[in-house]
Predict the structure.
Amino acid sequence: MAAVAEAARAPRTSMLGARLREAGWGYAFVLVPMAVFGLFFVYPFAYMLYISFHHWGILGNQGSAGWGNFGEVIHDPIYRTALKNIAEYAIGVVPLEMALGLSLALIVNAKIRGRNFFRSAFYFPSLASSVAITTIALYIFSYNGPFNHLFGLSTDWFGTASTDTWAIVGLNGWTTSGTVMLFYLAALQSIPTDVYEAAAVDNTTGWRTFWRITFPLLKPAHFFVLVVFGIGALKLFDQSYIVSGGTGGPDYSLYNPILYIYEDAFGPGAGAFGLAAAAGVIFFLLILALTLVQWLTIGRQER
Amino acid sequence: MALQTTAAAVEPPIPGHARSLVARRALIYAVLAAVALLFFVPFLWSLVTSFKTIPDSVNVTAFPHPWTGAAWHDLWTNYSFPTYIKNSVFLAAAVVSCSLFISGLGGYAFARLRFPGRNLLFLLVLATLMVPDQLRLIPIFVMIVNWGLYGSFWGYIMINLVSATNLFFMRQYFLTIPKDFEEAAKLDGAGYFKTFWRVMLPLALPAMAALAILQFQGTWNDFFWPLILFGQGNPSHYTLQLGLQELHTQYTTLWPQIMAGSVIAILPILVIFLAFQRYFISGVVSAGVKG
């Protein structure tokens, strides 16, 4: 208030000067961040588009390719395998994350001793290094590892084409469930208690209360988790790379869109940057479509 | 996350009801113990295995027989883990400090200073969140190679100087600080930078702490960008995560060594998590999902 009164009293020119000075400092402050965003986020995006329309090998630009790279990627059976794998993975892992996350949230939302401790314990795997977690899982589920010893089995869970995707589904479902738990926990705590009091008056059992009241009331949370973690699942890379040692698994069973880009560029005898960039653009469009769906639908739910 | 610590209301003693309550409570604790075991055992198992001999590492025994520190010694002397750790610590420290300063500066300007085009620029920052980080792989790699920065730490630091999430986080925090502080500083004749550096930044210390912790965790665990920038046969620049992955790929049966490496990769995050839990949990819920 005082500032406004003072500004009104001051001559026009000095007010303009103050504004200019503030704007100048504003630009100076955002100069470095904006330069970084321009150089390492915006420009690379445009550059990726440019590369995707050129024959681009280890020697650099070898001339225009038109839509050639895109055609080649779309008709590549390995890219189809990559898409099929990531669809399988997402369809497997997202419901698992939701089921585990919600169950954990219900457990640690109960009035129990040490629930903070359990919340932390369940959340920790989400924070630990993906390489370390994955190598531990590779050890436990290896051909002659503890899991197989314990149950008298002999499957190399992460090394067999028919089981490796599902092994990663199990691993990542376990790792991520703690994060999903936090979102469900926040949602559970925002449900007004009088809803439950009404249920208690009606003498409804716990199980029915959950399915009839809690679960439907969590609808916005279900939707949020489904979309956000669904998009997250499509970006799978670390685990597939580590499990297969960078090869993409037996019979391309661990290929996925990001690993496909990586292998085009850095795989054996590759250096096909034009193809890799085209695959990147295609994948971006896919994610963009899903993100727009997310914005439109979540935005409408919150209104 | 404040917890409702309301003590359970004292209920009139109804024997049957009480008994079923006790039974339910027991069931909850049993389930909890079982689930907690599922979350602890893998970590404990890797720790125990790191003290086993190689032949012993495939046995399902809770204790090593015999105990040996050979795997740890091996990592130190034969597999350059000290170098990997040093590289990881250096990169994490560099990225955290740059990121803190730059997102503090930018976040403050976007929250408080008025200049034409501010909202448009901020929208541009937020728009970069639409592009998955990993999709920068091809153009960034080509740029870094063209600039002769391939296999250098500087390339890694440059592309991670600031992220939209961090800038957004700092801006949101600065918006919550009352304007009185800046006005007081202005009356004292402090310039814009001095106001930011001496007054606003110290006030934003809680946010900076949270950001430092989350960014440290992100950089320490980062596997993707070190793989792209140092991964093609440049072991002197390997980070811990890269070294661990390479160790597993090359020597699949050295389980004690690999598990010791995993313990080292996890331990700093565990320590930080135990010390600063609330930052992690509030960070996730407020900032949404990262990456």
